[in-house]
Q: What sequence folds into this?
């Protein structure tokens, strides 16, 4: 079974971000989305540490470590970009001013609950950070994650077993195997990749899906 690689996943998410959207890309996989946004589409990328108008990652050798995203990765700033106080950044997040946030996840439940900050592992350092503010503050929350854990278990579950970041907040899930919408009727498969049959996706997911 071959799924999308991480850059292909990021490109697939980028396709769904519309013109004029204000978007926050979470730490980890979601940061890759910035490198795949169509150049002809004006999209405003926000970072919780106080940036608006981020561009793609800088070319090798052009990094400025005074200009970083929330994950401490060097970024670029587009013309018209702005810097502001951390408190103002969180006011944007909590005040409903972001159209979309893209977050990673350990688990997403069938009703759109999100768990992305703690697994209970003894060596983990739990820190929810701004994820809880983004998950409930953005108008739409997208999750970008691999479909299965390293042990082969589905990250899409009937009920999350890890501590929740937000309740019923996820609207769309992007994995290396499929795009799935969280709807009132259940989990609806929008698209599968590399010819993966619906029945096989449902078997791997371990819970009912809607074709």
A:
């Amino acid at each position: 079974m071959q799924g999308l690689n991480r850059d292909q996943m990021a490109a697939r998410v980028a396709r769904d971000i519309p013109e004029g959207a204000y978007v926050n890309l979470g730490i980890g996989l979601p940061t890759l989305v910035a490198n795949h946004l169509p150049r002809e589409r004006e999209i405003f990328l926000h970072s919780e540490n106080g940036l608006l108008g981020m561009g793609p990652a800088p070319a090798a050798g052009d990094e400025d470590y005074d200009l970083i995203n929330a994950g401490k990765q060097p970024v670029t700033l587009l013309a018209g970009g702005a810097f502001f106080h951390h408190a103002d950044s969180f006011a944007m997040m909590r005040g409903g001013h972001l159209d979309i946030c893209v977050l990673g996840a350990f688990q997403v439940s069938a009703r759109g609950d999100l768990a992305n900050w703690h697994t209970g592992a003894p060596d983990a350092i739990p820190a929810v950070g701004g994820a809880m503010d983004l998950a409930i503050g953005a108008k739409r929350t997208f999750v970008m994650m691999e479909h299965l854990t390293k042990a082969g278990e589905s990250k899409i579950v009937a009920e999350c077993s890890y501590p929740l970041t937000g309740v019923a907040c996820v609207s769309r899930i992007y994995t290396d195997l499929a795009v799935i919408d969280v709807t009132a009727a259940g989990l609806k498969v929008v698209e599968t990749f590399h010819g993966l049959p619906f029945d096989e996706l449902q078997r791997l997911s371990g819970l009912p899906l809607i074709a």
